C-alpha cells in the first residue's frame, strides 16, 4: 500500500516497477520454491531452477529454506495447535506475518525435531543457502569451529551478517564484528549506533579488546 501511495504521490514509475519485480520474485521464491518444491515435493526442478528459486527466496527474507520447510511441514502436521508455527487461533496478523517476528513456541521446536528433513539435507542448494557462512572464508578468532568470516556474504549482504566466526566467538557483541561499521561493511551496527546516539538504544554490549586479541593469537597458532 505504501508503494502505491508513493507511486501516486511521487509518480516514481521506476521505483514502483522495481518494488513489483522484487516482490514477485521474492514471492516466487516462497511459493514455487520453499513451499511447492522443497516443503511438499510437488514437482522436481533441475539445478539451474533450484538455484534461481533459492536466490528469489532470499529476497523474501523468511529465514532459510531448511527452516521454512521444517516449519511448514510442522504446520501441516499439527495445524491450529501450539506446535503450529503460524497458528491461526492466535489471530490474523500472527498467522500471516507475526510468526516471523517472535520467538517460536516451545511446542514448535519440540515437534520440529520429529519431522523428517533428510530430503532437504541431501539437496546441495538448500545446504549452500543455509550454511554458506560455515563453508567458505577464514577463521581468525576460533579455528576449530565451522563458522567463517565470509567475504562473499559480507559484500552481498552489507547488513553485517558475514562476520560469522567473530559472531560465534563473541555472540554478545552487538556489532557482530570486531571493528563496527566505520571499518567494515556493517549497516546494522551503524543503525544501532545511530539509535544509541538519539537515545533509543542503550547498554550496547561489546567484546573486550584484550580477549579478542587473545583469541586471534590462539587461532593463528592453531592454524600454523
UniProtKB/TrEMBL annotation:
Bilayer disposition of the protein: Multi-pass membrane protein
Coiled-coil stretches: none
InterPro entries found in the cross-reference section: Acyl-CoA_DS, FADS-1_CS
Ranges that cross the membrane: 20-39
Cofactor requirements of the protein: Fe(2+)
Compartment(s) where it occurs, according to its Swiss-Prot or TrEMBL record: Membrane
Entry's Gene Ontology cellular component terms: endoplasmic reticulum membrane
Main localization of the protein described in the UniProt heading: membrane
Alphabetized GO MF terms: iron ion binding; stearoyl-CoA 9-desaturase activity
Keyword line: Fatty acid biosynthesis, Fatty acid metabolism, Iron, Lipid biosynthesis, Lipid metabolism, Membrane, Metal-binding, Oxidoreductase, Transmembrane, Transmembrane helix
One GO biological process term: unsaturated fatty acid biosynthetic process
Domain of life: Eukaryota
Record flagged with keyword Lipid biosynthesis: yes
Domains: entry comment: The histidine box domains are involved in binding the catalytic metal ions.
Similarity comment text for this entry: Belongs to the fatty acid desaturase type 1 family.
Name by which UniProt lists this protein: Stearoyl-CoA desaturase (Delta-9-desaturase)-like protein
Species the sequence originates in: Dinothrombium tinctorium
Origin organism lineage: Eukaryota, Metazoa, Ecdysozoa, Arthropoda, Chelicerata
